[in-house]
Write a structure and sequence with these properties.
- The structure is a single chain.
- A hairpin with a 3-residue loop joins strand 11 and strand 12.
- The chain is mainly beta.
- The chain starts with a strand and ends in a 15-residue tail after the last strand.
- About 0% of the residues lie in helices and about 45% in strands.
- It contains no helices and 16 strands.
Length: about 180
């Protein structure tokens, strides 16, 4: 996870966003955790909140250069106070055997940590892709539902295909093609 120092004003943390690394295994569950951080001793102090667990899926995994983010929502927003430091982490019940966090840049000394169970802490020189969200997150982590009325033709196709979707869609549609 990462250590964040709140400097300007009090804030509310609604959720944690994480990039799940390609080395993570499925099925597994992850959850976000927010701790008060004692800068003078360099350790987390009080556990302030835990997000609901989320089941990992292959669509959440980040390869090199990917920017796939997974949102972990707190049941109740957590107040953060100016002048205080917080440690934001993502955990799996089975530790690093199931979950690897994607990395997103060079870490300042003493700001990024990883814990290997039972209690061995190590500083990282790269930043884990773990972020705090200070407003309500609009997306919902729910399973994708296949559309029963999608038509693709001609089948088989050679150079072009036509995809016919139902006319009453109210959701955003994402399509991916693989060879």
């Amino acid at each position: 996870g990462n250590v964040f120092h709140i400097t300007a004003a009090d804030l509310m943390c609604h959720s944690i966003t994480v990039g799940v690394g390609i080395g993570s295994s499925t099925p597994a569950q992850i959850e976000g955790r927010m701790y008060r951080f004692d800068i003078s001793r360099g350790v987390e102090a009080d556990l302030l909140g835990t997000t609901q667990p989320v089941d990992l899926s292959a669509s959440m995994l980040n390869g090199y250069g990917d920017q796939v983010l997974t949102n972990l929502v707190f049941d109740t927003p957590i107040p953060l106070y100016a002048g205080e430091a917080y440690f934001v982490a993502v955990a799996s019940e089975n530790g690093v055997d199931n979950f690897v966090c994607a990395l997103s840049g060079v870490a300042e000394e003493g700001t990024a940590l990883v814990r290997y169970f039972p209690n061995d802490w190590y500083y990282l020189d790269m930043l884990p892709m773990v972020r705090m969200n200070f407003g309500p997150y609009n997306a919902v982590n729910e399973p994708l539902k296949p559309m029963a009325s999608v038509r693709v033709y001609p089948n088989p196709a050679s150079d072009e295909v036509l995809i016919e979707l139902p006319g009453n869609l109210k959701e955003q549609v994402e399509a991916k093609w693989f060879d």
